[in-house]
Every structure is written in C-alpha cells, then in structure tokens.
Specification:
GO molecular function, one term (chains A, B): hydrolase activity
Number of domains of chain A: 4
Keywords (chains A, B): Hydrolase
InterPro entries (chains A, B): 6-hairpin_glycosidase_sf, 6hp_glycosidase-like_sf, Bac_rhamnosid6H, Glyco_hydro_78_N
Shape of chain A: globular
Oligomer: homodimer
CATH class of the largest domain in chain A: Mainly Beta
Pfam family, one (chains A, B): Glyco_hydro_78_N
Number of helices of chain A: 13
CATH architecture of the largest domain in chain A: Sandwich
Order of helices and strands of chain A: HEEEEEEEEEHEHHEEHHHHEEHHHHH
Organism (chains A, B): Niallia taxi
CATH superfamily of the largest domain in chain A: Galactose-binding domain-like
Chain lengths: ~525, ~525
C-alpha cells in the first residue's frame, strides 16, 4: 500500500509559476471556538465504530473541576474544527512542586478519543494519530499547542501532577482557521431536509480543507493532491468561490514538473514547495480538466494560456502508453482511480484519457490550433478502440484486463467520457447492480458514479446513491464527510486500521456541487 | 513522604527585598557542547544500579546513520550538562509524507536511559522523569527543545517516520548554562588524586546547580532550598565566588516570610517568587547561619543589617518551642535534619538552635545589642539543658526522644554546636561506629558528620568518611555528586524509586569546601 518511490526523478522548477502561486497565498480567516459540553465515549455496537458519545456535564463545570494524576476529561467542541488549541491551566493546592505532565488526544470521531492509539497497526505512519504529550514546568500557565489539529473531540489526560497540587482547566479555546469565506455562500433551502443537511456538511468539509492550499484532509495528509483539488474546485465554484485558491494550486503544480514534464500526484508545501515522488496518470491528466473547469468558471484566458503547455504535456505523456490498437496500457501503481481492492485500471484510465482530451478540445481553439487538430484526430481513435476492444458485447459492459474484469470504475469513466449516447450509458449503468462488478470503495469513486448517472440522465439512481452513501454518513453522525465509507463494512480502511482514516476529506465534499449544479 | 501542606498560611512580601533580589538576577553563561560518542547501556550487576555503558561508535558516525520507526540511539555527552538541546533533522528517501514522531529521554545516570519510565512507582511526581515526546510536521527542520534538561546521556527513539522516509540526526548540540564563572576557581593540585578528582566533581556539581538561583538539583526540584543554599554558599566561597548570587538568594527568602515571620524551606522562582508552604525549623534557622557566613566572607554590613531582623526572627520563633527545661520540642515533620528513616529529630534540632545562636552572636554586636544580650543569656541555658537532659552519661552519647534514640545526627549537631570541648566531642564521635546509632542517609548529613570530625580535630575519620562516601560515588562513576548515596544499598531512595533521584545535587557539593578550607 506504499505509493511509488521515485528517488531519481528530477524536478524542473518553473520559478515564474511558483512566484505567481506565492503571490496568491491566502490570508487565513480565524475564529475562536470554545467547547460546548463534557462528554464520555462508551461502547455501543450499534454506533459507528462501536462507540457512542454521551453528554455528562455542561462545559461551565469544567473550570470548577480539579484534575490530579490519572484524571481525564473529554471536551466536545460541537463541530469539526481545524486549528490551534490553547488551554489556561491553574494549579490548585500547594504551589506546584513538580512539572505537570499532560496527554492530549484529538479526534474527528469518537473512536479516536476512545481507543488507545498503541493498538494502531496500520501501514500508514502512526505519526498522523493526533496526540501530544507535554510537560508544563511553570504554573499557572497557558498551554499553547503549536501544531494544528483537525477534531471535534479533545481528550485531556493528566499523566502527573504531584501529591501536593492538582490543576484546573480554565479557558479552552480553538483558533479555527480556513481560507474560505463562508459569507459568499448562498444558503440552500431544500424541501428535502437530508439534502439540505448534506449540502451544509459538504460545504463544511470543503471549508475545513481550504487552508493555504486545498488540502486533501486537514488531519491527514494535509497535502495538495491533484485528484482532490479537481473535486474541491468544483464544490468551491458552487459555494465559496475562492477561485484564486484554485489558481494558486494550478500554478503550484505547473511550477514543479519533472524532467519528463510530469506533474506529481501531490505537493508538499512546507518547508518549501516540493513535488512528491508519486505519479498517477489519471491525476496528472486531471490537471487539464481542472484548468479547463477553472477557465469556464473565470474566463481567465491568461492562466489558461500560461498553463496550457504543461497541461497538454500530460496528455502527450499519456498517449505514449497507448498500444498499436490505441488502448492504454499501464504497469504497477500507474493510476489511482479508486481504493477498491483488485481493481484493474486500464479501461477506467482509457475513459479518463478520452474524457480529459474532450475537455481540452473544448478550449483548444483559444490557445493552440495544432493541439486542437491533434485532439480532433486522436479522440475518435481512442473511442473506437474502446468500443472495439473493451466493450463486451455479450455482457453489454466494459471490461478491463486479461480477466475481463467488470467494475463500476470502468463503466463510470466510459460514461463520463461520453463513449456512448446517454441512453446506452444509462442501460450500462443499470446493469451493474445485478453483476459482481467491483464496487466503488471511496467517496471519490461514488462522486464519479453519481455524476455518471446524471450524465446518463438517471437522476433517480443518482439521488438514491447520494442518499444511501453520503446520507448514510450523516446518519452515522458525520459532521464533515469522510475519506472512506463502506456502508457494508464501516470499519473499512485501505490503510489497515480505521483509526488513521481522515474524517474530513476533500474528495467527499462534492454533494454540494452535485445538488447545486444538477438541481437535485 | 509528602511534605507539609499549609494552604492557609499568608505570605507578607517585602517588595524592597524582592526588588533588590531582582536587581541581582545573574546573566547565565552559555557554552555549546556536542556529544562525544554513541553508546549502549547493558545490564551488569557489578555496576551502579545494574547498568553499564559501553561505547559502540564515534559520534562522527551519527550523521551517516538512517533512523526509521523503532530505531534508537544513545548519545553520551561525556560530562554532566544542564541546558537546552537542539537537533538538526534531515529526511532521507522520499519527501516526508507523515510527521516524524520522536521520543527523547535524558539521563544523568545510565539507568535513566536503560529502564522504562513506566516502571516508576515512587511517591514523587513522575513529571520529573526527563523525557519528551514530539512530532515534527516539517522536515528538514531543527528540533529545538524548550525545556531545560540535566543529563549526560540522551536517548533518541523514533516512534514513527513512514514507509517512505527515514531521518538522520545531523547537528546535536546542548547549550549548557550556569551563572558560575569557572575561571574564578584556582586549580587544586593535590598529591592525593582521589581528593583532586573529588574537588573537581564537587565544583562541577556546584556549577551545574548555579542558575538564576542556587538550585538544589537541576533535574529535580530545580528550586532554591534554604538547607542546600547554606552548603552551596560555602562551596561557592571556596571556589567560584559568585557572592552576589548568595546575596540574591538571601534577599529572596527575606522577601517572602509568612505572617508569623517564618521563612519557607524553599522558594519557587517561576512564574514569580513564591514561598513553598513547607516550613522546617532547621532550614529557617539556617537563614541566620547563611547570612553570617555571607557577612564573614564579604564584610557586607548593609546586607547583614538589612536582613538581621528577619534572620533573628527565626531564632525567636524557634525559642517558642522550648519547654520549661529549655529543651526544643517539635511535632510532625518540623525539621528536615536528614532522610534517615525513623530519625528522632529533637536533639539534633536543639544542637542546630545552639549552633545558629552562637553564629548569630558572633556578629550581633554589629547590628543589635539587645539581641546580643538575649543570645548571651539564652545560649548557656540551652547548652546546660542539653548536657543535663539529652546526654546519656552511661552510654556517653546524646539521645533523643522518649526511646532515647541514638543517632549520628544528634551527636553531630551537638558537636557542631560546641556543647563540649573538642576532645570530648572526638570521644563521642568515636563511640558511634560500635553502636546501633541511626546512620546518616544523605550527603547532606555526611557533610555535617565530616565537619563534626574536623571540628573535633579528628582529621583521619573525616578523610576516611570522605573517601568512602564521595570517593565511593566517584568509583561508581559520578560525574557530579548525587542527592542520595548509600554504599550499603546503592538503590536507596527516600522517594520509593531511584529513577527519580537527582544525580547532581547541591547538598553533595561540599567536598571542595572541606578540602580547601581544612587543607585536607
């Protein structure tokens, strides 16, 4: 499950682009949020992950409670936050004759403040588990945590005071941060209250992921991933309209190609802009899609022109992986597509390539006529190849790979690529539930499935999927939408343990876009 | 073992005195120390606490070593340090895609970097155990630890990196701090190399405890204790001669009496000067002793005059505890004297009272004639009472309490009080080893025993005790002298666990004073 490592790849930085990105660095909006109640988290098999939150006292009681060694409290901030916590700590009893030793644990979900992190055995670094162990030598004092946390619940455990003193936690406050301006969002009044709530939670998810870049998740990985950016940008256009942040992110990617012109799957922003050494064909291609969406939204021809070459380069790179039949061939972890286990990705990638090339063609006449001609020539060849070699006329479904694997992903991307008419697309998608097709594993793939239904004119299936999927998360207590959700296996994690999953995740924020764009 | 708690006592601050103390705040001297080797700590029953340090590599190798999850290294700085550590950390491999999670453990002694702190079950707060757990979100980076540590050994454990990267520790450096100026110390060239080394280690112990005040121990409690201050001042006069620091500490104590005029056993310096709510008769009395020593050393009559009243007040307070026979009576944990278990303290306290009154009398004519007269009248009454009621003429030893307990402490303080002639004092002390007298438990009491031998003219026994006691620590590997040392039980701790003992402790720093003052 470790992504690619490409230690030898060489980055060719484009300083002009990076400077432009730097000039678009947003100022973060800050708000100060205090907890709303004291809670306990108890085992309950009927609740998500087996844990239930119960209120035990009002937050006003906190400052009257004395905490000695072994004591703990869980604070509920009432909503998902991304920010910096400070706690005013006052000693009670004799002058403190030993350092205070505290452990703080932050949870987006109840499980994170209920289960011991030492039980974590997943493949992703345990460094992401949000906890801090601190000593305070001087009391009274203000504990100002330097790291940013993504959480709703905060557990405070006193590891040590001394026999002579205890402590009280007076002011507890979180400086919440986001580069999004919520006042720009028109309120959606929907007759369907679930959709109305889904819209709100989508926006909250988006807003909490909007920091100095569009992050994938503020808990983990806190990074600018191209696949997430593309969806975040769509939700952004429908709501907070911070289009300069999209522009900034486009310039960041464009500023850090490798010597083959490839754009990385994600960027690190600190200590400086660094392209990760992971490359996914689908993500690289989506740079063009995101650029064209941005242009359609803003009519910013300067940016389109600036970034066209590097965007088109991703298409050119992908075309090199076509075989003589115009079929895309990939090796290793060449594309992301979805976390679905065992998924064969060539057919889906073929669909994405066609989809992106068509998107590019929609604006190519404005920037590069020879590219336009190339697209016009090549797209039909890929479409025909898809129909000829990837369509199983017996099953009436697209297949992928030597085992002729059937998956939602393959159908969805061929539908989004417009390989067939809407009617035939609808029929294809309708067939899927009765097959053993590999199902979507992530909100990311569910988004594409829903959009495929809508493109195929099947609003009913789209709505149904949204209600069972994102609606399911709402029923399971989501304050923000999750990185991963499998209604049939709610402990699912591609990382070996659901403690490490992100519960406010960018690629899950699209219902607001789907609802608003398609008037759901 | 918890000291007194006096939550109701009221402090009457003397602002003038506290301002004077503040004006004497020293500037700390800084030096930058790097580790000398990489070591491992292995079980060895013949070594102190059962642990032996073995060199495994030169420190130059460190920056070439890659550390991933679960890896660790122990750095040996070659000497005892008090300061602030910084580590330059560089990632190796792919760009770091998860926070680095590190645990750092600091040890004055090998055991501290060998045994798991979770095994600690003593009565003193585990908050003193020197460890830090930190996350670093941005790499490369400089880990700058904000807390001060007292140590020779530093263990670095990598709790998490990620599968995609490891780290290297490049520069590791400790900013060592002390308010002492070592260049003021005349070097002692002694024909006895053990005494020469003992002198050096004493001075190092003193210097490492000299910070913004004379601390008792830089690991624990990092506080200004009156009993320790008195001995530190003596070692200071013999060596680094930072007499202003003694003056500052005198003014700090004088600035924070309670409403009965009592001086606390110790002061906290941060966040502001706070008198602890622990009061020991012996420690309060030693304020006068320390003041008179300071005056003898400096001829600073202004300070003597300034602080005389509060110093004399401690004597007046103590006299209230005399019964009609002029015998001191105490209840509870009224005096410290020593950590020896079961020690009855009234006779020793009687001795301390006489000793301090005599010391006061030596300068009383310069400041307060009526006090002088009072002392002249009272001292003989206490001396006579001691001889009459506390001397067991059959055993030819001082006894204490209803069980007529025999202890080193009782004899030592009666000798130091000069109740008998030197010859009789010598005979008294000579009798002790053949009795079942309660023995000294701390370097603090050993200091008084050695000085009692010297006052009694028994240089041989004094030297013998120094060589077996502090010399024993040297043979057991002391870089600085320890808070506690029992050659017969090297794991002794009055706190229930020797992990929490301080291994650089002020009250153990006096050999340099004894050697230099008495020309040992």
């Amino acid at each position: 499950m470790v992504f690619q490592t490409n230690l030898e790849r060489k980055i060719i930085e484009n300083e002009e682009f990076l400077n432009k990105a730097e000039s678009l660095l947003p100022v973060l909006n800050e708000s100060y949020i205090t907890p709303i109640q004291l809670v306990e988290v108890l085992p309950n098999k009927k609740k998500i992950h087996g844990w239930e939150v119960r209120s035990i006292d009002s937050v006003e009681q906190l400052s009257k409670m004395d905490f000695g060694k072994g004591d703990q409290v869980i604070l509920d901030f009432g909503e998902h936050l991304v920010g910096y916590v400070t706690i005013n700590i006052t000693p009670v009893g004799s002058p403190p004759d030993a350092p205070l030793h505290l452990k703080l644990t932050f949870g987006e979900m109840p499980i994170e403040v209920a289960e011991d992190f030492s039980t974590y055995n997943g493949v992703i670094s345990s460094g992401w588990l949000q906890e801090e162990v601190v000593h305070m030598d001087i009391l009274p004092g203000i504990l100002k945590l330097e790291r940013r946390y993504s959480f709703r619940y905060m557990k405070v455990e006193v590891l040590a005071t001394s026999p002579k003193y205890k402590v009280q936690f007076q002011k507890v406050v979180c400086k919440n941060v986001s580069s999004a301006d919520l006042t720009a969002v028109s309120k959606l009044e929907h007759s369907d209250k679930m959709l109305q709530r889904m819209d709100q939670v989508s926006i909250k998810t988006l807003v909490d992921c909007m920091q100095e870049v569009f992050e994938d998740g503020p808990k983990r990985d806190r990074r600018l991933w191209l696949g997430d950016l593309r969806l975040q940008a769509l939700a952004n256009y429908a709501t907070v309209k911070n289009n300069d942040l999209v522009k900034r992110c486009l310039y960041l990617f464009a500023g850090t190609p490798d010597d083959q012109g490839r754009l990385a799957a994600n960027l690190f922003i600190q200590p400086s802009v660094i392209a990760d050494d992971t490359y996914f064909i689908d993500y690289s291609l989506f740079f063009m899609d995101t650029l064209v969406d941005y242009f359609h939204e803003t009519n910013d021809l300067v940016t389109l022109t600036d970034l066209w070459s590097i965007a088109f380069k991703q298409i050119e790179n992908s075309l090199q992986f076509l075989d003589s039949n115009y079929l895309f061939k990939g090796e290793g972890f060449f594309a992301f597509i979805d976390w679905a286990e065992g998924l064969h990705k060539e057919t889906a990638t073929q669909g994405i390539l066609i989809y992106v090339m068509k998107k590019a063609l929609s604006v190519a006449h404005l920037v590069n006529n020879s590219h336009k001609l190339l697209l016009e020539e090549t797209i039909p060849l890929l479409v025909e190849a898809s129909k000829k070699y990837l369509w199983d006329s017996e099953k009436q479904l697209f297949v992928s790979g030597p085992t002729k694997q059937i998956s939602y992903a393959s159908q969805v991307w061929m539908v989004l690529a417009g390989v067939f008419s809407a009617q035939k697309a609808k029929e294809t998608l309708e067939k899927l539930p009765s097959t053993d097709a590999i199902e979507p594993a992530t909100p990311y793939m569910y988004h594409h499935l829903v959009e495929a239904y809508l493109v195929a004119g099947d609003r009913e299936s789209a709505l149904d999927r949204m209600k069972t999927y994102w609606g399911g998360m709402l029923e399971d207590g989501a304050d923000t939408f999750w990185e991963l959700y499998n209604p049939k296996n709610k402990a699912f994690s591609p990382y070996g343990h659901h403690l490490i999953n992100s519960y406010c995740h960018a690629w899950s924020c699209t219902p607001t876009y789907l609802i608003r764009k398609y008037n759901m």
